[in-house]
Amino acid sequence: MLRDLIRIARPYQWIKNLFIFVPLFFAFNIYGMWEIDYRVAISVFLGFSLVCSSVYCLNDIVDRHYDRAHPTKQHRPIASGRVSVGAGVVLMLILALGGGGITYQSFS
């Protein structure tokens, strides 16, 4: 079941969230000093990725009936019934609150 929960979170999609680091290249000032805290950037990346995963989970819950009729999406954990809707909701809440908390904490 853990493998199915990870599949719902779709961590392979996090690669596109690396664009969060692009502004770091433009943070270099004229005096040659970096004025950015990399720990904040990494925390924001992780928090944003977790929140995105919660949206993927919500999508799987809402679209489960449509996904069951789709030739490839029918194998997704919630659509196939390997993970219950209740477990999906709990996972979604954990991801959303965890990601939001990490992101909030990084700016405090």
Account of the 3D structure:
The protein has 108 residues and is mainly alpha-helical. The protein has one domain (2-106). Helices cover 63% and strands 0% of the residues. The chain is built from six helices and no strands. It is elongated and about 50 Å long. It starts with a helix and ends with a helix.
Question: How are the SSEs placed, and which strands pair?
Answer:
Blueprint: H1 2-9, H2 22-25, H3 38-62, H4 64-68, H5 77-80, H6 85-106
The rough form would be described as: elongated
Name the helix and strand elements from N-terminus to C-terminus, one letter apiece.
Answer: HHHHHH
Tell me about the largest β-sheet: none
Q: Work out the radius of gyration.
A: 17 Å
Relative helix content: 55-70%
* Alpha plus pi helix count: 6
Strand content: under 5%
How many domains is the backbone divided into?
A: 1
- Mean pLDDT, as a whole number? 89
Structural class: mainly alpha
* Number of E strands: 0
Instruction: Give the termini distance in whole angstroms.
Output: 35 Å
Low-confidence stretches: none
